[in-house]
Amino acid sequence: MFSRCLAHVLACVTVLTGAAHAAPRPLKAPAGMVMVGPGVYRPLYPASPAERLVSVRRFYLDARPVTNGEFLTFVRAQPEWRRDRAPRLLADDGYLTHWAAADALGRDVRSASPVTNVSWFAAKAYCAARSARLPSEREWELAALASENARDASSDPAFVARILDFYSRPALAASLRDVGSGKPNLYGVYDLHGLVWEWIYDFSASLVAVDSREKGEADRNRFCGATGASAQTPSDYAAFMRVAFRSSLEAAYTTSRLGFRCAADLEETP
Amino acid sequence: MSKDFRRTIGVLRASAIALALVASACEQKPDVGAMQRHFTEHPAPPPDVTSVPSDDRIMAVLTSPPNVPPPTNRTKPARVVVKLTVKEVVMPMADGVQYSYWTFGGTVPGSFIRVRQGDVVEFHLQNDATSTMPHNIDLHAVTGPGGGAASSFTAPGHASQFTFRALNPGLFVYHCATAPVPMHVANGMYGLILVEPPGGLPPVDREYYVMEGDFYTKGKYHAKGLQAFDMDKGIEERPTYVVFNGAEGSLLGDKSLKAYVGDSVRIFFGVGGPNLTSSFHVIGEVFDRVYMEGGTHYQENVQTTMVPAGGSAILDFRVQVPGAYALVDHSLFRAFNQGAVGTLKVSGPEDKLLYSGKQEDSLAEKEQAPQAPVLVDSAPPSTLTRDERIAAGKTLFASTCSACHQATGSGLPGSIPPLAGSDFLVKNDKERVIGVVLNGLSGPVKVNGTSFNSVMPTWNHLTNDELANVLTYVLNSWGNPGGEVAPAEIAKVRGSGAI
Amino acid sequence: MTRRSPFVWSLALCLLACRQPAPAPPSSSSHAVPANQRSDVPVPAVTEATGPSLYDLPIHVVDRAGTTRPLAAFRGAPLLVTMFYGSCASACPLLTSDLKRIERQLPTGVRDQLRVLMVSFDQARDTPAVLERMTLDRGMDPARWTLASASDDDARSLAGVLGIRYRKLDNGEFFHSSAIVLLDRDGRIRARLDGLGRDPSAIVSFLTAPS
Questions:
Q1: Nearest to A47 among C51, C169, C197 (CB)
Q2: Any CB–CB contact under 8 A between A186 and chain B?
């Protein structure tokens, strides 16, 4: 018990000293990105007792989800990602089907609304073209913890209720609103909640909620390594739903409410 | 190829030929009764798993509640294909109340599935492209890990398929088991699958499909508009609505279940939950047979049957007397204050002797509801025309008042005073009538020359508008004198505390 | 047990089919039907031949000789693919024994055609030397079995198309799902076993079906 506590303390100290080291060095964020972190993130399903708190290094994150217009520019530059050319292995039949044509949005699709119906492979290729990458789960979740005025709003009932409302709201197939039209969170990031689901790099690390009732022993023959991981706060249903959603995905999948944004490393020297 | 392998192929080929011969023999002589007798006289031989034809597929007939697919009428197992689509849809939960339901097939409960014991069920679960959430299905009829949940976990716009063998006969609940499971169930993701025993269930004249579920909304009971799910109420097990077939009034008025005098009626009843156990009762009826917990054995002559969340019961009874029979959860606040009321309307010739013999069951309605706290209606009164009030009042009457006073306003002889052609409405002034509805009434009262000594609960949790509508409807129905009640008049009586 | 002719067996079974419309509960189902004919265990569906080829996936693996090979280099023979990490003490040895069990059910001629590819998502620790030692220690046929590792990015991509999920823990272990996926000679998924110790009949029947 003592050693576990000690580990927590050390983890926190590491984060703080990391921040102290990096602070004096001003960095210019890539276009469209803001700096997030460092911070401590409490995962819904800690993979091991030592990981009830995980530290996340500073990183850059797109302030807004990638839009239809931006993705169209990418598809025109890399036509192998047109919906009529991308292999089905990398993007399923739903890929960009809401667009009027393989290289045009059409009148019904707003240029400034978030792009959806994109696969993980397509999202990854888009970010790579910008010399960026998809955010990791930890990074995304750290950024998404912040409300307009707190870095960790997970205990703010109003904030949690707002997220939950989005997930339980009916999916309106009609056009999604433009990105960045709400208020940014404390880091300056818009739309992490309330607009679309977002791809993360390690979506396939979400493996608990396939049947969320299976705990510990029940599924040992499907999973190797640590088992018995269970949610720390069963009432954190918003996080539950994200894990469930990610668990349902495969890399070629597209859905009408699933978009993405990119992230980038800070070029930090230790 | 190895010798063993050749032998296996040989077995398969010979089996296929012999099977074809025997199968045709079976079809020529479908004497199920004889087979059944034979079956009971001798201990069961091991199951013949090769009797399932691998190519002939039957599409399962699915129905939306309260309808039930016809019996399979099959004498042997088959390969049955079930195609079910998950849809997230906004539908009314009560008059003026909307809710974003998650459904199997677009209804709550989901489509009724009917197969036969031994069937190989090829299950296709599609998640509609407009869905926000991933979903899956756990069928309690499945023998296998998760009841199919892991094999059917499906992202929006995608589909999954898995196959199971219906080993056990019975009436089984199915539901979504995606995290957070209670929320998916609370949003309406449940339904029933019937696995018929060989030979089927005893034939009846009418079969209906009813499920009870508890719902948790941000707003209180009857708060108007699109209501969001309330996680806290769910965790604390404080439902806002407890209803049959997903919405208040889904089995009332024009949507009541129907039967004729002399009919044998079967209700496939299930409880989706997520939290509550039902004390299911049909006022004025006794269940002749209850297949308890949806299993093989039945109890006879049952008044109220308890059905757990995620459980079911098959209820068989014969209707002998015409009239309206209320389906209730006999945990009565759910029936009177949260919506758990439906109606079975029986038409046909009367038999006065039989009717009086059945009356005692309606005593259920005498149970007194404690006084609810008075809620002062702060919403601005609406400006409806008299006709609009009558129309709105009719809906409210059907969902709220008709369980006791009956849709025809006839009341119930001996216990519930009539509203049709009621001299009470003529003799008393408006304030007194409003007072009765707001504050309830107990003790003796004489209506049309007959004395009643029952208890009417208070209805002060309804808004001034709602009470004005329902009273205007009553005043203008069934030969009553007409007129109109305005919300302001309700407010005045509410404020004065007059009776 | 004395051997009876196949026809006697099948006739007996079919007579039962006529006389007994209801199979008994599973507890009493122990009788002489060959395991791969047992349809009371849901048989995983064999995927139709129309799916995309995994050889469109532009990834590379590093084998026990240290050679970097594109995944598409495995084109041309039926392939069992799975993902693992070498230092896993529990599930991964079971995965190997599942693969061997599938092989044992195959006629020699079919087995000789089959290739097995195990891709590690732990490239840092599963060096060519480690993979070499594993191949030898676990008695894998080096002519047909390839143990390899992939970069983090390539492993995520492969897992993404195989429907395999894994999470790297801070202590260097991995938490992962186990699946054995059968690709045809063109790289299309034809059958899969999710989990360990599952009935391999879908894989065996595809491989042994006359082509």
A1: C169
A2: no
